[in-house]
Amino acid sequence: MCRASLQNEANKSVAEGVNDGIVYLMAIPYILVAGVFFAVWRLKQKKKEVIE
C-alpha cells in the first residue's frame, strides 16, 4: 500500500523523504557498532603500548 501510494508522480517529494528516512534509520545502528569496535580497538592498542 505504501509502495503504491509513493509511486505516483504527484508524491515524488514524499517518496524521496521516505527513502531518506529509511537510509537514516539504517545508518545509525551501523555507526554505533563501528564506534564500539573502534573504542575496543583503541583500548587494545593502549594496553599493547603499556606492556611493551
How many beta-strand elements? 0
Largest sheet: none
Secondary-structure element series: HH
Structural class: mainly alpha
Q: Could you tell me the strand content as a percent range?
A: under 5%
Structural account:
It contains 2 helices and no strands. The longest helix is centred in the middle third of the chain and has 40 residues. The protein has 52 residues and is mostly helical. It is 87% helix and 0% strand. The protein is rod-shaped.
Throw out a few tags for this protein:
single chain, 52 residues, rod-shaped
Question: What's the helix and strand layout?
Answer:
Blueprint: H1 2-6, H2 12-51
In short:
This protein has 52 residues and is mostly helical. Helices cover 87% and strands 0% of the residues.
